[in-house]
Write a structure and sequence with these properties.
Elements: E1 2-8, H1 14-25, E2 29-33, H2 40-52, E3 58-61, H3 73-76, E4 80-84, H4 86-97, H5 106-129, E5 133-139, H6 150-169, E6 172-177, E7 180-186, E8 189-190
Parallel strand pairs: 1-5, 1-6, 2-3, 2-4, 4-5
Antiparallel strand pairs: 6-7, 7-8
Length: about 200
């Protein structure tokens, strides 16, 4: 079992690179699609992603209850699992929560973040316990303009903290910059900052 984490900005080529790694890892791949189609733009994105994936791959549309993956033959019959993407998963949880992020307490936001974190960690655990190679795709949300509204700020902060937790559980990590992959981590080795940084 191994975890490969692929992160980058929007339309940076993350999915294409992650799919390439999945093809390297196994022939039997399960694709976990976290997107929920809510408008024409999302429908177009989903269509394009489907068209570029190998037809032989299995697909499950899900972003929660990953502990139940063991009940799906698509999971048991696959050697590698690819989830695309974590930030969409986070957005789905935030929408499902029905919280008014302009008015709700920070305690409610923290509870939601903990719920999302446990869900993501459960995916890593179920793949680990079943000897699956896992490829995780996520957006780097902390390098752009600071959102001017509460929900955007919470989304950015939750994404950043969950991405950090995934990176520490990963064996391999790549940052995709304008279509170019930059290796950040290989089998537990990360770049160390100078002591006085």
């Amino acid at each position: 079992m191994s975890v490969t984490f692929v992160i980058g900005g929007a339309r940076s080529g993350k999915s294409t690179f992650a799919e390439m790694k999945a093809k390297e890892y196994a022939e039997n791949v399960l694709y976990l699609a976290t997107a929920v189609v809510t408008d024409q733009a999302m429908a177009d994105r989903v269509r394009k992603h489907k068209e570029q994936r190998p037809k032989s791959w299995s697909t499950l549309e899900m972003y929660r209850d990953f502990k139940n993956l063991v009940n799906f033959p698509e999971f048991t019959n696959s050697d590698a699992i690819m989830i695309d993407c974590i930030t969409t998963l986070i957005g789905n949880f935030m929408f499902d929560s029905k919280l008014d992020f302009d008015l709700c307490s920070i305690e409610k936001v923290n509870e939601l973040e903990e719920k999302i974190t446990l869900e993501v960690m459960s995916l890593i655990e179920v793949c680990n316990c079943n000897n699956k190679k896992l490829i995780i795709v996520s957006n780097e949300t902390g390098m752009g303009v600071v959102p001017s509204y509460y929900m955007g700020n919470y989304f950015r902060d939750i994404s950043g903290r969950i991405n950090s937790k995934i990176s520490h559980r990963s064996d391999f990590m790549y940052f995709i910059f304008s279509g170019i992959p930059i290796k950040l981590k290989h089998k537990g080795e990360m770049v160390k900052w100078p002591q006085d940084f």
